[in-house]
Amino acid sequence: xxxxxxxxxxxxxxxxxxxxxxxxxxxxxxxxxxxxxxxxxxxxxxxxxxxxxxxxxxxxxxxxxxxxxxxxxxxxxxxx
Length: 80
Prior knowledge:
- There is one protein chain.
- The chain contains 5 helices and no strands.
- It has helices at about 1-10, 25-35, 45-50, 60-65, 70-80.
- The longest helix is centred in the middle third of the chain and has 11 residues, at about 25-35.
């Protein structure tokens, strides 16, 4: 995640301070704030982050969905 967030900041030409928050602290904060409008994080999202990476190494999803592969930097630019 650190690498991804640094890459997003680089592509967007932003300077940000990154702070790693232990999962128990994140889970507690998420449980407290998840019922608020526009909550930054839910307890389910913390659970998902704990599960680790879910990365594929082939283009099967692209073929099934009929979408072209797009590099990460370009995709970040498109989303913004």
